[in-house]
Amino acid sequence: MRSAVLLLREPFWARLGVAVVLLAVAFFFLGRWQLGRHEAKVARNDVVLENYSATPVPLDAVLATPASALPADRQWTRVRLRGRYEAAGQTLVRNRPLDGTFGFEVVVPLRLASGAAFLVDRGWVPAGEKVVEPDAVPAPPPGTVEVVVRVRPGEPPLDRTPPPGQELRIDLGRLALRAGGTVYRGAYGVLAAEQPAPAVAPAPLPEPDLDLGPHLAYAVQWWIGDVAAFGLLGYYALKEARVRAAGGRGPSGSPPKPPEPGRPPKPARPRRREPSDEEWEDAATG
Hints:
The protein has helices at about 1-5, 10-50, 170-180, 215-245, 275-285; strands at about 55-60, 80-85, 90-100, 100-110, 115-125, 145-150, 165, 190-195.
């Protein structure tokens, strides 16, 4: 073992040791990155499980004003609202998948008694024969309705122009301009229930996916590689030290040990001589 440690002071092995250290540092931080992704999903799932099926609360318990931002720990909170749908402000959000089929989500402003509007995602409709739009969109219930929604933050915008009457994302700033007047911009609501219930309605959106993914397993794999890198370095250093002790030449190209005093070197094996052209001719004519 002492010989292996001394071996790491040689230039070849020192460079190899530095490379292994750098590789191990990279593996460590890659493992931390995967662990962070795992912990973020665990925290998100905790919020979903706590809020998704909780008793509905008033809107001002989550958003004090239309300009208030949605706290991260209040996402998916069930909120009870009362107002009138403004069908003229309805917007279709395109390229939304459901069970492997792409369609549209239907977002409609709900004008509250306060005069402010809250954006409600009523659900999903499939693309029609023309693909670029649905064949039909169920109308929201007329008159005053009472709805329960699960609040969600808006989505980041895309720098592309959608077709008329459609949007690419649930960008609350753009949707608020479509609705007009005062609009809640800190969150929108995914419809959970509405009264009176219409005869035909968009398909409800599915529950959020709570799968944690493989991130924790990936983190463990990176850290196993971290330990393995040092283990392999030590193994091959020890192996070369033993080869040198036996008089051989290791992978670093170091010369073998000189013979011990008083012991003659092993005789070199004679090299085989190739026949000359004349000898080949004599053999052929012989």
